[in-house]
Amino acid sequence: MPTLRTVYAWELRKLMAQKRTYLGLGIAVLVPLIFAIALLLQSGQPEDVAFGRYVRQSGLAIPPVLLIFGSIWLFPLIAALVAGDIVAAEDHNGTLKTILTRSTDRSRIFVAKALAASTYAFVALAAMGIVALIAGVAVSGLHPLVTLSGTTVSSGRGLLLIVASLLVYMMPLLGIVAIALLLSVVTHNSAAAVVGALMISLILQLVTILPGLGALQPYLLTTQFNAWQGFLRTPVDYSPVVRAAWVCTLYAVPALGVAFTSFVRRDVTGG
Amino acid sequence: MSADAAPVHARGLVKRYDDVTAVAGVDLTVQAGDVYGYLGPNGAGKTTVLRMLLGLIRPTAGEARLFGRDPLVDGARALEGVAGFVEEPRFYPYLTGRKNLELLAALDGHGAQGRIGEALDIVEMTDRQNHKVGGYSHGMRQRLGVAAALLRKPKLLLLDEPATGLDPAGMRDMRALVARLSSEGTTVLLSSHLMPEVEELCNRVAIVRAGRIVYEGDLISLRARAGGHWRLRTTGDDEALRVLRAQRGLTAVEREADTPSAAGALRFEGDEAAVAALSVALVESGVGLLELTPVRATLEDVFFTLTEDAAEEPAPPPTTAADDAGALAA
Ligand SMILES: Nc1ncnc2c1ncn2[C@@H]1O[C@H](COP(=O)(O)OP(=O)(O)OP(=O)(O)O)[C@@H](O)[C@H]1O
Ligand SMILES: [Mg+2]
């Protein structure tokens, strides 16, 4: 049987041959560019968002602003765009029967798809982070960063903390990937899966502002999109990061489990 | 894989979708070297049986084995040495024909990459290999589907109406290819609703209707079963009919109406001795003979008799499949 690596490599190649892949990546790259250009063209800065005040003092403040902005719907959308499509597109093209009658088990194909969708989310996030850093430094320079605690960290340490933040941001993003993948398997419909995953992400955020449900907030998947902020405090607060790790696991693992079982057992009647 | 296990061995296969019984208890054995025709009208459950063999869908009941392996238990390993497709072959429209085959070869392993060029040659798709499949015609996708199957160097080839969508030359090539693969030792199970195709290629046949096998055997026995009747035209059909009915050894006497291509006539069944006696009796009663000809039943006729005649089957289940078949055939 071909190795998981071979199957995974082909899943990536298929992604690279599709337009929708570049839509998400394009947005991830364009948003920081547009933000930087806007800073150049206009005076003032976003005051009502953390780090917004410092975007002209240090380029390092720009990625955190975009992470906060992107957590509402942008990154969930980018992640769902591919994860929600990766199985449903095979239904749409009728190609499941084509790949499932070769010498590769369904389980291996599922794992390769899950890995490819996660890789995509990672690449999009990294692309946003890198472009935001470069554009930020180009516009505002590489200067020490003011943290959420009001202290200042050196630009070197600031850079390190930004990278760590991006990695922690990946955890809830993988939760979204898992949910979109599940919807992709069970709905057989890419639009339904993408929109469904995005709706779930928006509704979870809505829950926190409903009266009486505030206590749920720490355990919602979308709340974990703020966990990285623990890194930008002095001293570094690891507790939100630790909580994000297990909360995201609690969302991702059952979703992946159901998606896996359903994919491995289902009747392939289309195509 | 046990060396002596039959390429295809299915027992009691049933597949139900909600209220539709697509396959209603099929036993099927294809021996090594067979070119086996699985013949039936639309909706008879041909594709559904092939899907179960390929492990794409789970049988509601019964079991299927390929070379002794169960696709439900052994997964992809059950398909070792097996290739084929159901319905229209599907590929990634945004990849070229060649890239599609490279992907499938990667999922195959076993040196399939090295057979791509040859497979494309065989189906005459070499000059279109670098175009995206999205722009292929139906027949071209069908050819690519055959190429994809050949990559696996199959010992057992499962083909679902392989000639659909092919032009006459393509159909001829397809049949020649099946014949060649068979002569090289490949076992073939092919579904079809074209009797001539099955007659040309297959040594064994199952005729299915509404999810059940209504005939199973070699083509020679099927031909023998076909039988035939006699056609009689005279100067006085009413008198002739009286003589016919009085004649010993003649059965199924009927009057056939005019058709656009043939004048109306009397038809009956009987052996040659009885027919000879009839001709004498007719002349004695003063009836002039215009035509007295034997009509051989074609296999097509047998197919229609088996798949349309409701009395032929013990108790056809009231399934949608049966209704579909009936409605189209009517
Ligand atoms: N996924 C499905 N859901 C519901 N009914 C189905 C499904 N697949 C097949 N059927 C039904 O099962 C019956 C057999 O279908 P199948 O496709 O096996 O027929 P077939 O012999 O291949 O016909 P054709 O010659 O038209 O290809 C039909 O009545 C069909 O409507
Ligand atoms: Mg069919």
Walk me through the structure.
- The complex is a heterodimer of chains A (271) and B (330).
- Chain A is mostly helical.
- Chain A has one domain (4-262).
- In chain A, 66% of the residues lie in helices and 1% in strands.
- Chain A has ten helices and two strands.
- Chain A has helices at residues 4-16, 19-41, 62-70, 74-83, 88-93, 96-99, 106-140, 155-187, 190-207, 239-265, and strands at residues 145-146, 152-153.
- Chain A has a two-stranded antiparallel ribbon.
- With 330 residues, chain B is α/β, with parallel strands linked by helices.
- Chain B has two domains: 8-224 and 303-325, Rossmann fold, CATH 3.40.50.300; 228-296, 2-Layer Sandwich (Alpha-Beta Plaits).
- Chain B is built from twelve helices and 13 strands.
- In chain B, the strands form three sheets. In chain B, strands 5-6-7-3-8-9 form a six-stranded mixed β-sheet, sandwiched between helices.
- In chain B, strand 6 (156-160), helix 6 (168-183) and strand 7 (187-192) form a beta-alpha-beta unit.
- In chain B, helix 4 (116-122) packs across helix 5.
- The longest helix of chain B is centred in the middle third of the chain and has 16 residues, at 168-183.
- The two termini of chain B are 45 Å apart.
- Mean pLDDT of chain B is 87; it is low at 311-330.
- The interface between A and B is medium-sized, with 30 and 34 residues.
